[in-house]
Amino acid sequence: MQRRNLDDLLAFVAVGRERSFTRAAGKLGVSQSALSHTIRDLEERLGVRLLTRTTRSVAPTQAGERLLQTAGPRFDEIDAELAAITELRAKPAGTIRITATEYAADAILLPKLAQLLRDYPDIKVEISIDYGLTDIVAQRYDAGVRSGEQVAKDMIAMRIGPDQRMAVVGTPSYFKGRSEPKKPQDLINHNCIALRLPHGGLYAWEFEKSGRELRVRVEGQLTYNTTAQMLNAAVAGLGLAYVPEGLVQAHMTKGRLRRVLGDWCPPYSGYHLYYPSRRQPSAAFALLVDALRYRG
Fold this sequence. Notes:
It contains nine helices and 14 strands. It is an alpha/beta fold and 296 residues long. The protein is globular.
């Protein structure tokens, strides 16, 4: 195959995956006009339209989607092999992309990765905060961090932290003139600080007691998409927050926050690192796995 065809296919895969000439051009380091010209030349040589373009979006045609699904994985395999060869150097190197919740990134990943990153300056770790169940293969992450019961069965999962508990908390001032909830259903009478998930919906607070499970769709005046902001709002006395126990332990100890519904928040499986079973681990990734392994 001519080198020109390979370059043009790489350009098409970039546009097809990004669904944007602007973002694809930025990744490839070329101008948007040059990239558009490359795709038009490829379409003319193949005699078939590969992309549908509008003023607002770019999407593969049926033929384009077929080519994307065929060519894309092959280029990924080549990239993986080149990366593996690079890892044969004396020092492990490379960028490892991980998706995790905010609390897991702060409480688990950062403390455990600190020494690894100091010891291996050629290893880079990119952590993306996400509360959804991200498809790490489709989104091209090397690994994800979620609680054990959230990990798909076709993934390799390794525990990286102890069991966790959630906590419903509010300030003493918030509870003045309000009765504390005794059961999850009582939350409908309270101003609850909600969590917006990546897909747009609100997270339903999860409870369990004596084998009975409940999910409560709470309402309130404030909604955030990270737990740190939820905690700040709770400390400010603006409502009840449902957050990891470890995040609020110090506040509870000092009396700034009061816990309710503790008997409805049993321990659950702690955080796990998960990644595709077919993944060929690099030297850098193997070191990261060992650094994160829970030894408690």
